[in-house]
Specification:
Layout lengths: L6 E8 L6 H4 L19 H4 L22 E4 L11 H9 L3 E4 L4 H9 L3 E4 L2 H13 L4 E5 L4 E3 L5 E3 L4 H9 L3 H6 L2 H10 L2
Parallel strand pairs: 1-2, 2-3, 3-4
Antiparallel strand pairs: 1-5, 5-6, 6-7
Length: 195
Amino acid sequence: MSQYSAFQSIVAPLLVNDIDTDQIIPARFLKATDKKGMGDHLFADWRYQPDGSPKPEFVLNNALYRQARILLAGENFGCGSSREHAPWALCGFGFRAVISTSFADIFKSNALKNGLLPVEVSADAHWKLVRFLEADANAQVIVDLESQTVTLPDGSRESFPIDSFSKYCLLNGVDELGYLMRFEGAIRDFESTHS
């Protein structure tokens, strides 16, 4: 996992409440055990026609949003079944953060463990961001994990919560196993003195 740093991006709006993990990555793609190519299947049933051609009306098929690194979602994003493939697909498409008013707990945990930042903001901040994007689809937002803030297009800043361990792992580019391996010497010393 690469180190997470502050970044600025346009925002792709997908303002649907209760988007579940089967919509994010349909179950037929869960046989894969490799993250490679998973972004191609993100929102597959919403992005593609039955013949595999893109649906022109779907937001992520708009050329403007192909470079978006932030997804703005409705409330309760990532509900449904637990699957790491959901954050894999979002990251594979190029997203680094999802902004919502709420996330399903299991999705949030899986996202943090896979380098995707779930940014939970107040309903007021969410509403402001929606209004900015309606006025200017090219509006830019800054996500800064270090300060735990989102800077909106007007320069106002909104804070978001994150547990300290997940923040540490993202900022240092390590997963849980990588974190534990930093203590390999101490673990080896302990094990050599205890049977």
